[in-house]
Amino acid sequence: MAATDTDWQISPRYSKSKWDTGKLDVIDVFEDQIRGWLLEFAKDLASQKHGGLATLMVCCSLLERLESTEQQASSKNQSNDFFAAHATKVFQISESEAKDLCNALQNGLYHEALIRRGLDLDSNAQRALTVESVEGQPKPIIVINPQKFVGKLEEHFAGWIATTRKDQDRLNYLESLLPEQQTPSQTVTPQPSYVRLGTSTRNE
């Protein structure tokens, strides 16, 4: 079905009119949303000399979103808990370390536009994330290599997608977050959480 002037993007590759045909799988749409709207841009930023903070700003919220889908629940009023719970799965860190990561990374970036004390970015670090003890400091320092961090998230996301394809509860939850499918005779009212055709810089 061709896109119309009342159509909009529900992901970079898929339009609302395509979704309305009933021929798309919700997991393909979600994968395209995360890859096309987040991870691809994060990788571009990570390759730039001073792109580390912007890289993490773009992609770190994915941890909270994936945990929300696994629990089939909104993260409202439990954002930190969801972020920390999924961080332990991706980076094999303790719950306490994951909470410190959430405070310094996600809360720092989204509330203060910068990371908080206790978190360092190092493009030469060997791993995506390490926890290092520092002499004289009461708490360890978390060190992130932004480029490897994105790579680790992308690797985790690929496995997560494969698992979710076989989990009907997760699929039902993802579908509940997409616009309702409408027949051509129904009035189409664009929802603000998606992108009108022609206004996105990444509609290809």
Question: How do the helices and strands line up, and which of them pair or pack?
Answer:
Blueprint: E1 8-9, H1 16-20, H2 26-46, H3 52-59, H4 62-71, H5 79-91, H6 95-112, E2 119-121, E3 129-132, E4 141-144, H7 146-164, H8 168-176, E5 195-196
Parallel strand pairs: 2-4
Antiparallel strand pairs: 1-5, 3-4
Helix pairs in contact: 2-3, 2-7, 3-7, 4-5, 5-6
Summarize the structure.
The protein is mainly α and 204 residues long.
Low-confidence stretches: 197-204
Q: Give the end-to-end Cα distance, rounded to a whole number of Å.
A: 16 Å
Helical coverage, percent range = 40-55%
- What portion of residues belong to β-strands? 5-15%
> What Rg, in angstroms, do the CA atoms define?
19 Å
Count of domains: 1
Kindly name the structural category. mainly alpha
Note the run of SSEs as H and E.
EHHHHHHEEEHHE
Widest β-sheet, arrangement of strands: 2-4-3
Estimate the global geometry from the Cα principal axes. elongated
Number of strands: 5
Largest sheet: 3 strands, mixed
* Alpha plus pi helix count: 8
What is the typical, i.e. mean, pLDDT? Answer: 89
